[in-house]
Specification:
CATH topology of the largest domain: Serine Threonine Protein Phosphatase 5, Tetratricopeptide repeat
Organism: Malurus cyaneus samueli
InterPro entries: BACK, Kelch-typ_b-propeller, Kelch_1
CATH class of the largest domain: Mainly Alpha
Number of strands: 9
GO biological process, one term: protein ubiquitination
Keywords: Kelch repeat
Number of helices: 8
Protein name: BACK domain-containing protein
Length: about 260
């Protein structure tokens, strides 16, 4: 009987965590950890989990500050928005003075910069988004031919969690994925001339931007992303296309402060 009541109370807190406010500050550490690690924690964004942990620590900083690493180990920082990591996580004094917390922050930054894959950590809840946040891995389908053998120039995505397809964009060149964006190189432009333009498509904002230029106009080529570089692969033997011509994409809007992170081993 009591076990059933405890489970019901646990589920209630998971569903209404945003409404409980100051009541959560009085929770013992094991109980708070049980909520933070639970996939069923109903929060609109992962930032709310960080705020919950930080609010609990600030209620008694002298005693609870050393416990912050245990809490952040169950906050899924890789899915916290980048600007929030800079403005609210990295700039938080309790985090900045805590090397274990900074290691978790560095892990999140590496994940968002495509230097770390979620499989690199083995089974790890931090690398898995909570269902309530609406984030999910998707399958991106690029081009191909339809049933009439006509070439397709569309990019569509499939969400296995919802079972829905969604159209993303039209493309005319080779496509590679890097850091959550689609990079399209070469192909034909809208005047049917060969293109040497490198463009990036952001599926979150559904906007295009020109980010670079190829060594020369090319088509019928493939592209891959390796170690944060975008490398168009031509199928023709051409000595003029060397590694020096590789287009290295400097990621924008990631000017997070490195002074604390670089000091870590």
């Amino acid at each position: 009987m009591f076990g059933g009541l405890a489970a019901a109370a646990h589920r209630f807190v998971l569903r209404h965590v945003g409404e409980l406010g100051a009541q959560l500050e009085r929770l013992p550490l094991p109980r708070l950890l049980s909520y933070l690690r639970d996939d069923g924690l109903c929060i609109p964004k992962e930032e709310a989990a960080f705020q919950l942990a930080l609010r609990w620590v600030r209620a008694d900083p002298a005693t609870r500050a050393p416990l912050l690493p245990q809490l952040l180990a169950h906050v899924r920082l890789p899915f916290v928005r980048r600007f929030y990591l800079l403005a609210h996580v990295e700039s938080e004094p309790l985090v900045a003075r805590c090397p274990p917390c900074l290691r978790l922050l560095r892990e999140a930054r590496d994940f968002q910069s495509a230097r770390l894959d979620r499989h690199d950590r083995g089974p790890c809840a931090r690398m898995r988004p909570r269902p309530s946040t609406g984030l999910a891995e998707i399958l991106v389908l690029v081009g191909g031919c339809d049933r009439d053998c006509d070439e397709l120039v569309t990019v569509d995505c499939y969400n296995p969690r919802t079972g829905h397809w969604r159209y993303l964009v039209h493309v005319g060149g080779s496509v590679a994925v890097l850091g959550g964006k689609l990079y399209v190189s070469g192909g034909y432009d809208n005047t049917f001339e060969l293109s040497d333009v490198l463009e990036a498509y952001d599926p979150e904002t559904r906007t295009w931007s020109v980010v670079g230029q190829l060594p020369e106009p090319i088509f019928w080529h493939g592209s891959v992303s390796i170690f944060r570089q975008f490398m168009p692969e031509t199928t023709q033997e051409d000595d003029s296309i060397t590694l020096d011509n590789t287009i290295s994409l400097s990621r924008q809007n990631q000017n997070l402060h490195n002074q604390n992170l670089n000091e870590l081993p």
